[in-house]
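Example record

The entry below shows one chain as it appears in the dataset: sequence first, then structure tokens.
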Amino acid sequence: MADDFLEQLADLEVLAPPAEFDRQLHQRVNRSLTAQHLLDLLTGGLPWAALCFAHALAGLVAFSITGRFGGERKS
């Protein structure tokens, strides 16, 4: 007799997944991964690249004005 809840679940018939299940699952996962990558790029990658570019541009402007490279030290 199947009085136990788990035994009752074991007796139930499980239907096969739909034919398009794998494709739909991959599409949903790929959409969420693409959104996560774009969010990471917009919040992390692009600001860091802009900061590095601004640093190089400031060095170029300083070199153009003073004629000396910023990394040089006086002896």
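Notes for this example: The mean pLDDT is 89. The two ends are 94 Å apart (CA to CA).
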